[in-house]
Amino acid sequence: xxxxxxxxxxxxxxxxxxxxxxxxxxxxxxxxxxxxxxxxxxxxxxxxxxxxxxxxxxxxxxxxxxxxxxx
Length: 71
Hints:
By secondary structure, this protein is α+β, with helices and mostly antiparallel strands. It has one domain. The chain is built from 2 helices and 2 strands; from the N terminus they run αββα.
């Protein structure tokens, strides 16, 4: 367990190894909640439908590239 200090602006720094493990990048949205005497911070999961849409777009682009690629 790591110890962090709250800044005068109420900010904390999430340790690098945790950011890397959870793939948290600049601009990502996190969820924060209180549970008893604890603060819980979670990475917000993208909308599953958006993920499927993006996967479909990538698959479509691969198929288009495959069809126009000269052999």
